[in-house]
Amino acid sequence: MKTPGQYKLFNDPVHGFIHIPKGILVDLIDHPYVQRLRRIRQLGLGYLVYPTAEHSRFSHALGAMELCQRVLQNIRHKGTDISDEEVESTLIAILLHDVGHGPLSHTLEHSLIDHFDHEMMSTKIMAALNDHFDGRLTTAIAIFENTYPRTFLHQLISSQLDMDRLDYLRRDSFFTGVSEGAIGVPRIIETLRVHNEQLVLEKKGIYSVENFILSRRFMYLQVYLHKTVLAADAHIRGILRRVKELYELGKPPSVPSPGLSYFLSHATAAKKGISDEMMAQYTSMDDHDLYACLKTWQHSDDALLRVLSQRFLTRKLLRTTFLDHPASDTMMDALESPTRSILKEWGIQPNQVDVAPTSYVLHRDMSTTEAYHARGQDIMVLQENGEIEEFSKASDAQHIAALSQPMRRPYVVHPKEIQIDDFLS
Asked: In Å, how far from its chain's centre is CA 58?
């Protein structure tokens, strides 16, 4: 039984009450680096499609930590010896696994810093926190980076069946109302155990994990890579690209965010690592920085920046059309003229801007999803005879092997006024 004074309690609509042991975990939760996650939406621009998808990276971090706490307790009950320090360090690692996300989560991950992903920033922030807490995060960092000898602890944080995925699928399903993500989390947790220091699934959990893999595919198609989300992502990246160009032209717009101003006015790259200055500027930002800028840029003297910002804020977004085959050069060339005409209708004249404005509202791309990656990060199933087998081979469902193949969907982002069917040969 948990003693009330020894725990901080959070009431979570997805997992129920979350009990956090008082001490370094609570101190980390209260730290500004973690509190910043309250102001970053978990699904980035997903709220433009699903109005209730307003949940934060903070709630996801707590949820993933709670699931990790439950599975560690379950594994201990099944006879695996895990020290209190290892439990605490694993919980620290999962709490901080997304602390490196920037505004709008994944949307701007490659727009602000070249050669960058959020895990690089998470590692940098964890190192800074380790200094602040006198080395108490050393084991947590080793677990996060998979240099700790007990591999199963890292697998709880990053693998094909980690607590990160279990939480975000269940949480995103709850807040979007997309029922396909409502996976059986308790059943999966109860059927996990450790075998030869590796995380494995007991055979009785196969059907629940089959549902988990299918749910992941459906959530990518219906939520994470929804056509309107792809269009909104392209729209906002076009806006930031224009701001960067205006800086290069010596015509910088007003940027009411010191952090965004730093990254938009500097050619920053993480190829050689992340500097302390980059981390300081990055951790000063959240979603509100970007929206404050958009509200300013909708009054910009630059016609292109002004119109794109106005249209984003009023949800007059671009459109994504999925294609059977990648868009050809001929097709893209044919779309240029009608796109220019539409831009004129929006109030953007070619002589008002110094670049080809069509490139901001017209481009082709490819979305890729892979529900199960059965190459090097396999889910292993413990058979009744004590042997382990890769999940797609242990499962009776033929489609699981098929789900390990990447699903690629070519698409074109374009103004809504254009009917792409008219340009398909």
From this structure: 13
Instruction: Dump pLDDT digits (tens) for 180-234.
Output: 888 999 999 999 999 999 999 999 999 999 999 999 999 999 999 999 999 999 9
Spell out the alpha helix ranges (H) of 36-83. 57-77
Domain chopping of the chain, boundaries:
4-224, 227-367+411-423
- pLDDT at 376 > cutoff 70: no
| Bridge-based pairing state of the strands 319-322 and 380-382 | unpaired
Q: What is the rounded CA–CA span in Å between residue 321 and residue 323?
A: 6
> What is the torsion angle, in degrees rounded to the nearest 10, for the CA atoms of residue 179, residue 183, residue 184 and residue 188?
180
> pLDDT tens digit string along 292-303?
999 999 999 999
- pLDDT surpasses 90 at 369: no
Evaluated on CA atoms 197, 201, 202, 203, the torsion sign reads negative
Amino acid letter for position 303: A
Mean pLDDT of 344-367: 86
- Cα 178 to Cα 48, 106, 181, 230: the distances in Å are 15, 20, 6, 18
| Predicted structure pTM score | 0.94
pLDDT digits (tens, 9 = 90+) for 273-290: 899 999 999 999 999 999
Q: Which CATH number fits domain 4-224: 1.10.3720.10, 1.10.3210.10, 3.40.50.1380, 3.30.450.20?
A: 1.10.3210.10
Side-by-side strand order, sheet with 198-202 = 192-195, 198-202, 380-382, 388-390
Residue 406 predicted with pLDDT over 90 = no
How would you class 81 by CB atoms within 10 Å of its CB: exposed for 0-12, middle for 13-18, buried for 19 or more?
A: exposed
The secondary structure of residue 383, as a DSSP letter, is -
The token pair that represents 28 in the structure block: 């980390």
Nearest-angstrom CA–CA distance, 266 and 247: 9
End-to-end CA gap in the chain: 68
Q: What is the DSSP letter of 221?
A: I
Half-sphere exposure of 107 (CA within 13 A, CB side): 27
Greatest CA separation found in the chain?
A: 75
Long-range contacts of 126-132 (CB under 8 A, 24+ apart): 126/96, 126/99, 128/33, 128/279, 129/28, 129/31, 129/33, 129/96, 132/31
CATH number 1.10.340.30 given to 227-367+411-423:
no
